[in-house]
């Protein structure tokens, strides 16, 4: 289920006649195995099972490939090392097993001092990511308060028996309840037409903090920043998860459920920078990249740009 990095994917334009600073990602990313020090660890989660189970449009399995391809050609402005930590493959419908393997890999990256960025896959990636972070948290002398910040048009709080891309935060809430941990979840960019009253009721029951997409315009940025700041202040560690369908469909068409409105990229990027500057960000993932519905690699490029920014 786990496969080490396939480094042949890291290729792109070469600008060496421009001098020593003319460097792109494909010339700097190294394989995790044999890594020379802690850095950013890119880990792919190749999975269609979550979206398929959630009545969505499959294709996210190819997400990690197209995000890496888009990253490969980006200019290198990074100050830290970036390692490719390989991929977790979900075979057929073996979603739970794939999430368990992802958790193991994430926990290992964290133990080794890396900053994991997981490339999805549907949003079922979040349960594996959180499991890995929770495992690492348990190894700390003092258990940290973990806060989840999800940029998403959807709560993904479905209560279905079968895990899917629509259930990860409900699964996490259940796990927290069973373990006696508080569930701290902040969902930014929620679309009212995209979530039934039942999901809003669940969010209320679980004390979820949220902000609607139509409360996140550029003119409302200060209020959004204040809400994010208050949440960040209330926790020790942050797990950041970005569902690409939080962005307008014109910016991110390559997802299972494109957003009619969405939150502007400039707002999402500004808030991500704010979260990063807190120094509490422990890991991140980018979910729902689906190349089957992309237009001219727009979504892959925007996903890569977000990873680029997180990995600065
Ligand atoms: N991970 C995405 N989940 C959304 C999909 C909504 C849709 O397909 O319209 C959800 O379950 O609500
Ligand atoms: Mn979503
Ligand atoms: Mn989602």
Task: Provide keyphrases for this structure.
single chain; 10-stranded mixed β-sheet; alpha/beta; binds manganese (II) ion; binds N-(iminomethyl)-L-glutamic acid
Short description:
The protein is 34% helix and 18% strand.
Structural write-up:
The chain is globular and about 60 Å long. Strands 1, 2, 3, 4, 5, 6, 7, 8, 9 and 10 form a 10-stranded mixed sheet that branches. The model has no long low-confidence stretch (mean pLDDT 97). β6, α5 and β7 form a beta-alpha-beta unit. The chain has 9 helices and 10 strands. Helices cover 34% and strands 18% of the residues. One manganese (II) ion (MN) binds next to loops.
Name of the level-1 CATH class: Alpha Beta
- Count of structural domains: 1
Order of helices and strands: EEEHHEHEHEHEHEHEHEH
Radius of gyration: 18 Å
Shape: globular
**What's the CATH H-level superfamily name?**
Ureohydrolase domain
Helix- and strand-based class?
Answer: alpha/beta
From the 3D structure, determine the CATH topology. Answer: Arginase, Chain A
Q: Which residues sit in consecutive blocks of at least 5 with pLDDT less than 50? A: none
């Amino acid at each position: 289920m786990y496969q080490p990095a396939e480094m042949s994917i890291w290729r792109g334009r070469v600008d060496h006649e421009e001098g020593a600073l003319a460097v792109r990602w494909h010339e700097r990313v190294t394989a995790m195995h044999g890594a020379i020090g802690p850095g950013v660890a890119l880990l792919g989660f190749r999975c269609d099972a979550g979206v398929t189970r959630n009545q969505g449009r499959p294709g996210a399995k190819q997400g990690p490939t197209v995000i890496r391809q888009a990253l490969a050609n980006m200019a290198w402005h990074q100050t830290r090392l970036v390692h490719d930590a390989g991929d977790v493959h979900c075979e057929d419908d073996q979603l739970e097993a794939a999430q368990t393997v992802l958790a193991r890999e994430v926990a290992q990256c964290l133990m080794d001092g890396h900053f994991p960025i997981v490339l999805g896959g549907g949003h079922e990636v979040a349960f594996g990511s959180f499991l890995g972070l929770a495992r690492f948290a348990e190894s700390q002398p003092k258990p940290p308060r973990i806060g989840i910040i999800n940029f998403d048009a959807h709560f993904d709080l479905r209560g279905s028996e079968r895990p899917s891309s629509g259930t990860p935060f409900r699964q996490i809430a259940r796990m927290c309840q069973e373990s006696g941990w508080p569930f701290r979840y902040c969902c930014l960019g929620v679309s009212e037409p995209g979530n039934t009253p039942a999901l809003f009721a669940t969010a209320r029951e679980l004390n979820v903090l949220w902000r609607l997409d139509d409360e996140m315009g550029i003119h409302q940025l200060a209020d959004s920043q204040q809400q994010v700041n208050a949440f960040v202040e209330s926790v020790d560690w942050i797990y950041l998860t970005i569902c690409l369908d939080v962005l307008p469909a014109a910016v991110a068409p390559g997802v299972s459920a494109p957003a009619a409105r969405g939150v502007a990229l400039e707002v999402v990027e500004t808030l991500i920078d704010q979260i990063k500057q807190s120094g509490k960000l422990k890991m991140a993932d980018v979910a729902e990249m689906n190349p089957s519905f992309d237009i001219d690699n727009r979504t892959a490029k925007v996903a890569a740009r977000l990873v680029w920014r997180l990995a600065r």
